[in-house]
Amino acid sequence: NLSASSSTLAYDREFLRTVPGLLMVTEIVLGLLVWTLIAGTEYFLYPAFGWVMFVAVFYWVLTVFFLIIYMTMTYTRIPQVPWTMVGLCFNGSAFVLYLIAAIVDASSVTKDLDNHNYNSWAASSFFAFVVTSCYAGNTYFSFISWRSRTLQ
Prior knowledge:
Elements: H1 19-39, H2 47-71, H3 83-108, H4 118-150
Helix pairs in contact: 1-2, 1-4, 2-3, 3-4
């Protein structure tokens, strides 16, 4: 006797109304802006911008992945994963590496380097610092969530 089981994913539209949800959407939008501003230039000629591209694209993809996990409430179907710890590690590492990338980006922007790409690189540097502050905020909320779970 075979039984058919239907497994549907839930949709948590309220997540986007929380501060971590809003920060995550901001990270996605502005992170996309960071790497498109750099990708539109000859960044591959300068290793510093290659590093910024790596960090921006890597964490953009992972943030989209985590947004999908939180929006579909997939984390409730995989209780073996310590999601609060995973979120804390993800946001903490994103904050640290994005901070390094933003500093590298800002320190590499000079008109002497390439006057044609100066504005794109300067704008990407600004938005990289904004995204860094968003990841810092999400790291804080992840820490609060992790801390409340470990005290129970």
